Amino acid sequence: MFRKSLLLGILITVLCLSGCGNAQELPGYNPKVVGNEMYKNDLMDKILNERIYKAISAGGDREEAEILFRLNEMTADQRRNLNYSISRAQYNAVTEVHMHTAEGGLSYTLPFTAFRGGTQMVPLPGIAGTDGSLYRFNHPFIYTSLSMESRPYEESAQYLGKPYNTLTQNDVRSELKEKWTNIQQDQYDVSSIDGSTFKRDNIINGRWSTMKTKETPSFVANDISFALPNEPNTQYVITLLVREDGERGIGKRGIEDIIANYLVPTISPLARLNESSHFESYNDYSYRVLNNAVEESTGSGNIKVYKTSGGITQTISVHPYEHKGPVWANMADILRITQAQLRLKPNMRHGSHKYIWNDGAPGVLTVFEYEDGTGELHFSTQDAHNLYIHTIDYNRATSDYNIGLLHTIISDAKITNLGNTYKGEVDYL
Fold this sequence. Notes:
single chain, 35% strand, globular
């Protein structure tokens, strides 16, 4: 995986230059697909399930199982199946990415689990001495990354020497081939470069491109670059890299489907949240508070509480927590994921979770909804020394905000002074 992450880092610095003409639609686009849920691929799920079950069969009981269940009352098969269910449940989630800028920033959703990632610095081609941050969010079989450049399109690495609206497919092919020909590398097949422009209402300067590696088996990278209408001077590049042959259940066509029908429709400006909420700060943690919420006194030095007239309660707490070991999630988060996915709390109507990356910092959102109409959202993230928890309690009958909107508001956060906390390889679970 580390080698593929490096490949992705090298690739994005050049493929992010792509652009092509006549504003065609993205490859794989299907107007009949409403990609607002997890991406389903039977073969990929089968391979993942086999891997998980093999690991469970070779190992002991999961710590969550020992805490939540009476394992001594179960048979060996029951315990093994339980451990499998807990492990598999961690993959039953989408991943939401937030990248903040002075104008607000970007939000998009990967329709699959990506709880492994990290950040690294990569050079921006054509701009000597300038590096940019590359953020990685990886599924076991799908490697993804995000980079951004705070420059107008005409001054950015994406510019191809012509106004965006005049670019043709031949322009981008010839430009990219020339650039790759002048780079000393033997990993990528220059003749495989393809791309075009595309238009969607939620973006501007939309471009896609693809390129294959020379190795066997070959990997293919699908790349989109764009800006948001409300901040045209920030250019974003999202790349997905998979094995071309689909041996792991998903290949080139599957990635085209994901990008065109699941990922791109979710791209939106974080500034839209300002209509209903605003940022406040507590220590190094910045979180969103509903605009009509009123802070209440708690008498505690590490807890803040806000309430709205519609019965919504927001609670923010900061806890000293020294990170140890290779996994960033704390046991409380892991237990909540298990409780949500397996519906272990009394009178639960629905439970789910979602992985969140805020500027490269991982976190998890868990959702608990109950038969009486009440619900609880719980978002957790951390730096090297503190655990930050934001909860929202609500009643559907009286709530003065859309519940789906609350999911994004609670999980949109910023942590200052992260330093090198999440540099390199990061495993949330």
